[in-house]
Amino acid sequence: MTLDNRLGLGFVRQPKFVLFGPGQRRQLGLMAKGLGRRALVITDERMATTAEFKGMLESLSREDVAASVYDKALPDLPRSNIVEVVSLFRDKDVDLVIGVGGGSCMDLAKTASIVLANGGDVRDYYGEFRVPGPGLPIIAVPTTGGTGAEVTSIAVIFDDETNMKMAITDAHLEPTAAIIDPELTLTCPRGLTAATAADAISHLVEGFTARPKNPTPEELATKIYVGKNRITDIFCIKGLELMNRSVGRVVADPSDLEARSDVMFAAYCAGMVINTTGTAAAHAIQSPIAAFSHAPHGFGVGALLPYVMRLNLPYCTSEFAEIGRVLGVAAPDQPELRQARAGIARIEELLAALGAPLDLKAIEVRPENFQTIAESSLKASRLVLNNPAPMTMESVMAVLRRGYDDDRSWWTAP
Q1: Beta-carbon neighbour count of residue 166 at 10 Å?
Q2: Where is the Fe-containing alcohol dehydrogenase-like C-terminal domain positioned along the sequence (predicted)?
Q3: Residue 319: is its pLDDT beyond 60?
């Protein structure tokens, strides 16, 4: 079965401004002054000590934008982080939020923006379109090439009281502006570079093979994830081309700015894709795996991707064949299934070049947890509905078993 966008629809959501290029962080003050005068700048302890961060604060100062810094952002964004930020700054008359760092820093900025503007507890906004009004303006400045959080209407939160990952999906989370400066990734540790790039590759693959939903006008206005379409495909293709060209170069020489720029632009493309299509089975299954594995999110979805791609192959063969052609490992005169398998194999090569694990045993997932993981993954209905192959207990358990056994044979049924 081939995926069918019957409407010929093209649709994306995006920030008002996106500024990309080496050194563009120096424009932060000029961009900020048009949005506010009292900025809350959110980052983590490591980034706060860097010359680059201090330079960004100086840029704000030159434009008479007062900056209050919160530098205690934590990985996997715990709810307690959001509660602390809101309690510290609720009465500070902040009118702009700037997130500088990885995905958790930017998600903290986005969630702080909506709670500071609308009140209540962040739990009030878990789910889809539950934010009652606009947040404070947000500028997102990513320092890793992978999450795409600088352009998405999504924030993922670990509720450290309920021990569950929760998501807010709402157009009010969309950053007003993104400044994407590849120079900020030059000091990114090798492991983090690999994990975030693996995450971006999974976004591109899942976005390109997601179901077209042929949404109604009402669904476009009320749903974040409205399916694969003509415009998201353009971002997918460009992102895959750049990853194919430069992932190996980044691994070989982390100081290669051109390669870093390619990977960061690919991650931006991936963010633009998932902001509209959403992700699918690999992300749905990884979320409950996080309770049993300490592997970074990007390595978790990367370890699942080979098996999810095989599950989906019969349902989107032409899309995987196009991936094969885009990645330069397939020719149009070859049988379509051969092209598709070559595309899947090349995605695995890119993940392997990053040093990403390609089986579940490597990220310490155990068979005794499969049932719980499968049951929980099926509750992520927005992601389940995106996946081209039906997600059932049987199919998810098959993915988990094959992933644990590193069984990358070509299978046509669970």
Answers
A1: 17
A2: 228-402
A3: yes
Q: Which residue has the tokens 């397939």?
A: 330
The burial of 87, by beta-carbon neighbours within 10 Å (0-12 exposed, 13-18 middle, 19 or more buried), is given as: exposed
**pLDDT band of 1, cuts 50, 70, 90:** very low
CA 354, CA 373: separation in Å to the nearest integer?
26
Locus of tokens 């704000």:
60
Instruction: Evaluate whether 399 touches 413 at the Cβ level (below 8 Å).
Output: no
Whether residue 253 sits in one domain with residue 277? yes
pTM value > 0.70: yes
Q: pLDDT per residue over 298-314, tens digit each?
A: 999 999 999 999 999 99
* Alpha carbon separation from 20 to 109, 141, 187, 316 (Å, rounded): 20, 10, 18, 33
Q: Are residues 117 and 194 part of one domain?
A: no
Distance CA 151, CA 235 (A): 13
Q: Which two tokens stand for residue 256?
A: 């290669």
Q: How far apart are CA 320 and CA 309, in angstroms?
A: 9
